[in-house]
Amino acid sequence: MDAQTVDSQIRFEIAIAMARLGATDELLSRVSSLSVAQISEELKGLGAVPMLLGIVGSWGDTLADDEILETLRDWNQKSEERVWRITCPHCSIEMVLVFAMDTIVMARRECPSCNKEFLVVNDRTQIAEWRF
Ligand SMILES: [Zn+2]
Hints:
Elements: H1 3-20, H2 25-30, H3 36-45, H4 50-57, H5 65-77, E1 82-87, E2 94-99, E3 106-110, E4 117-121, E5 124-127
Helix pairs in contact: 1-5
Bound molecules: zinc ion.
């Protein structure tokens, strides 16, 4: 993997950890552009335990990037919740959803980027088409 790929995968794992801590979609959509210091601050604000803060704090410092990625993956795999990486059907921005179930049968979300609603049905995103 090249350095850019590792960086984006580290940020994806951080987004998963943040989502489990209750991060808003708006925050998750910004993880790709935050500095390590900003990510640490956001994690503290979400009440992350010192172990997770320590892992992230070692990023770009005492641990190599591939070690950070591996440690974060291990961290995230401890959780029983499933994580979906989905794409907004309106504007194509990627986001992370966390649910404590095997399949998203139906969920309604508002995109943090374009603010339009969409549905996640059977793990796939769809543009909401309902009228009352
Ligand atoms: Zn969107």
